[in-house]
């Protein structure tokens, strides 16, 4: 597996935002682009080699809820990464900037309240959200809107001028589930003062 799955997802997002602007084009279509992103990311990770990548797999013990992507090593010791994606979409999230953050928190709630099937443990979970709408990014920048997860969320500006709030942003959480099922969340690089972006906090850009 790549050493850093989260960085791989970020780079894939940037590559598909320019130069063909695929994400921007699909963004205008009804239904959003999350399903497309699932397929393309699955193909991307499969092309890297050394692992299996599957979509919509039931990984939560005692629940019918499914993970967006499941990465497992083809050989060697157990090495599982579960990915939950959340993509902000024009037709789905036009009823308020808070819906994007709410949707990501629902994925976190799913992880918190559903045990991972023991056959996939130990595992790393990546919750990754992406938006390029300023109002949504501004809402996500406020740590108060993340509740109990605020100190674990890392915000990054993937594309755009450093002095311009308009750009492509990602919001992510890195979660480790140990062999005994215990959940450990990795703290973000910047705590309650704001989210990291190119050496600055997003909150400082809004002040």
Can you summarize this structure?
This protein has 207 residues and is of the alpha+beta class.
Structural class: alpha+beta
**Main β-sheet, in a few words?**
7 strands, mixed
Intertermini distance: 40 Å
The chain-level mean pLDDT equals 71
**Shape category:** globular
Q: How many individual β-strands?
A: 9
Order of helices and strands: HHHEEEHEHEEEEEH
Proportion of strand residues: 25-35%
Number of domains: 1
Rg (CA only): 17 Å
Stretches with pLDDT under 50, minimum 5 residues: 188-207
Kindly state the percentage of residues in helix: 25-40%
- SS field, number of helical segments: 6
Overview of the molecule:
The chain has 207 residues and is of the alpha+beta class. It has one domain. 30% of the residues lie in helices and 26% in strands. It is built from six helices and nine strands; from the N terminus they run αααβββαβαβββββα. Strands 1, 2, 3, 4, 5, 6 and 7 form a seven-stranded mixed sheet that branches. A hairpin with an 8-residue loop joins strand 5 and strand 6. The longest helix has 16 residues. It is globular. The N and C termini lie far apart (40 Å). The relative contact order is 0.14. The C terminus is likely disordered.
Provide keyphrases for this structure.
7-stranded mixed β-sheet, 6 helices, alpha+beta, disordered C terminus
Topology:
Blueprint: H1 5-17, H2 22-27, H3 34-48, E1 51-57, E2 67-73, E3 80-87, H4 98-113, E4 123-131, H5 134-141, E5 154-159, E6 168-177, E7 183-185, E8 196-197, E9 200-201, H6 202-206
Parallel strand pairs: 3-4
Antiparallel strand pairs: 1-2, 2-3, 4-6, 5-6, 6-7, 8-9
């Amino acid at each position: 597996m790549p050493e850093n799955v989260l960085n791989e997802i970020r780079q894939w997002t940037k590559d598909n935002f320019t130069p063909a602007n695929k994400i921007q084009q699909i963004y205008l279509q009804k239904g959003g682009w999350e399903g497309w992103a699932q397929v393309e990311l699955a193909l991307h990770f499969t092309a890297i080699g050394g692992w299996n990548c599957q979509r919509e797999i039931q990984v939560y013990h005692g629940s019918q809820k499914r993970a967006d992507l499941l990465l497992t090593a083809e050989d060697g010791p157990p090495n599982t990464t579960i990915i939950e994606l959340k993509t902000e979409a024009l037709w789905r999230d036009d009823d308020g900037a808070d819906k994007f953050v709410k949707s990501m928190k629902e994925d976190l709630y799913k992880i918190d309240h559903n045990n991972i099937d023991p056959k996939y443990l130990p595992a790393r979970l990546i919750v990754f959200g992406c938006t390029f709408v300023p109002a949504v990014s501004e809402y996500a920048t406020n740590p108060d809107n993340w509740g109990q997860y605020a100190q674990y969320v890392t915000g990054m500006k993937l594309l755009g001028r450093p002095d311009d709030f308009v750009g492509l942003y990602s919001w992510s959480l890195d979660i480790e589930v140990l062999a005994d099922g215990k959940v450990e969340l990795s703290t973000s690089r910047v705590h309650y003062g704001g989210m990291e972006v190119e050496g600055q906090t997003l909150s400082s850009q809004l002040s």
